[in-house]
Amino acid sequence: MAENDFETRLGPLLRQTANDIPSDADVTPRVHSRLYAPSRQWLPRWSGAAASMVVVVALLVGTLAFFQSHGAAPVDANQIVLHVDGVDANATLTVVRYHFTAPASFIYSPLDDTLFDALGNSYFDMSGSGSSQGGQIADFGPLPPEALQGRQTLTMTIHMIAVMSKTLTPEHVNATDTVVSGSWRVSFDVTPVPGTSVSLNSAAQTHSGLTIQALRADVAPNSANLPEGLRVVVKLSGLTPGTLPSFDTSNNSPEGGPTESACPGASGGTSSPNDGQVLLSNGDGTQLQPAFVIQLTAAGATTGLTPVPLDGTAELELIFCVQLQAPVALTFGPVPAATAGGASHVIAGPWVFPLPVG
Amino acid sequence: MLLHTNDDAAAIRRCRSGDIRGLDALMTRHQVQALRVAYLLTGDRMQAEDVVQDSFLQVFHTIKHFRPDHPFEPWLHGIVTHVARQRLRGTSRRREVSLNAMSPVGSTHAPDALSVARRASVEGSDPVEAAELAERRRALLDALSALTQKQREAVVLHYYAGYSDREMARVLGCPSGTARQRVHAGLGALERIIRERYSWLDAAARPPSNAASAREDTGHG
User: Fold this and answer.
1) Three-class HEC string of A332-346
2) How far apart are the first and last CA of chain A?
3) Yes or no: is domain A45-190 CATH 2.60.120?
4) Could you tell me the CATH number of the domain that includes residue B94?
5) pTM score
6) What are the chain A neighbours of B110 within 8 Å (beta carbons)?
7) The domain A196-355: what is its CATH number?
8) Does residue B208 sit within a domain?
9) ipTM over 0.85
10) Residue numbers of A between 270 and 309 with CB closer than 8 Å to B
11) How far is B173 from chain A (nearest CA, A)?
12) Cβ contacts of residue A314 below 8 Å, gap of 6+?
């Protein structure tokens, strides 16, 4: 049979087979039951191997709200206590494991958490995972290289916690009634895994008015609780003010390589037709999109959704969790570029930066 | 292909605020397609339900990192693909020690033709037609399971979910050229497998007259 004929028939064959799943199939009850009796089965693989952990009870500052549920006893914010179970940091991630203690008939999930260092710099929560009762894992952006060289004091703050009853049915859960506001703040010490930092002397490269320069590469070695990886800091200039300097991210699953090397919590990835492309070429032949793209701004780290300021520049951290093998190179392009008038065009590039790592 | 709607945006906003009804709305709109993608990826209804259940839990816990200017469905399908991949790895490891020796070749949890025929008979539909349909489905799932995981993902996402090379690249986290390559390799491999093992299956997808003669030629059934 000719391949084109087969290709034509394959779609209908697949649809016919897929229709074995009826159109009224419903996993909602199963998802509800898991949400109301959560487990920790999809925590990152290294989460169970906690090293020496400092347990700190959070300082609850103020009592700002009560939780009222339908027919259930109210939960006072004072009853919810935040505990940090452990923290790990390297050049790619800062991982905080924590849990709440509170009235047992509810389950708790933070709606916002922010990490600060002793200098007041903030770190974006790139990914959260875990169950709302058994423990939480927050994956924050990495500390700067100088902070990786010694013990650091960090502070995590949470201002909103979603509270769900374990006994009420989902129909009784009301969005406005399930958020407890307060100010939970906990400080703790961490000794990061020191890596190597390489200043890159590569010249800035320009295509069609868009300039990219690779500034620094920070290598995170493999450690007990964190995977090895790479952070590359790049500066873009010539961007249109007001646009978003966003790039495709992925689950960081290497081509032909084990998925287990993906960064914690980076599954799924994000992309949009307006995103630029950047790939890390590893010496073993794999090519990876970054697991996370973090925009460094004066206000702290963001996810890349901060509009480009008037000077048209943006500084980004690209995070890869990968076992590096020389030669390693970073390639940008194509990159969509928007004009102030809203019209867009694509700059093919490429911008190629060999990286002396691996 | 439904990618993103205003309703999705509202549901995502609710989900981000911790409102489980936002997740419910997303499940209502997307779970059947997600289940069908997972079914084709795993070849097993029970596994597909497990995959989609875990995928929506992951959606709920990570929705605050979903970029609202992006389409929801490819993001969901990326999670489904990732979860299915993880689950299949676990399954294959378990099968190495026990199930291979116990299960018929290519066995899946798709309903077998006999039970489907019996059910059809009870329900009043044509039992022969129902059994043939079940057999075709089972054969295709077996053929898909003979592909590599990456090929299977590419074939399902392209020929079933209708993703372009670029969309697949985003869902799978690989370059567009690689996605295209996997589709091409997967298509070729699937065609060979079906031609060698299930030639009647492809014939069945042809116009009725051709299908009947091909079925007689192979002596199947």
Assistant:
1) ECCEEEECCCCCEEE
2) 48
3) no
4) 1.10.1740.10
5) 0.56
6) 20
7) 2.60.40
8) no
9) no
10) 270-272, 274, 279, 287-289, 303, 305
11) 5
12) A235, A236, A237, A239, A245, A295, A308
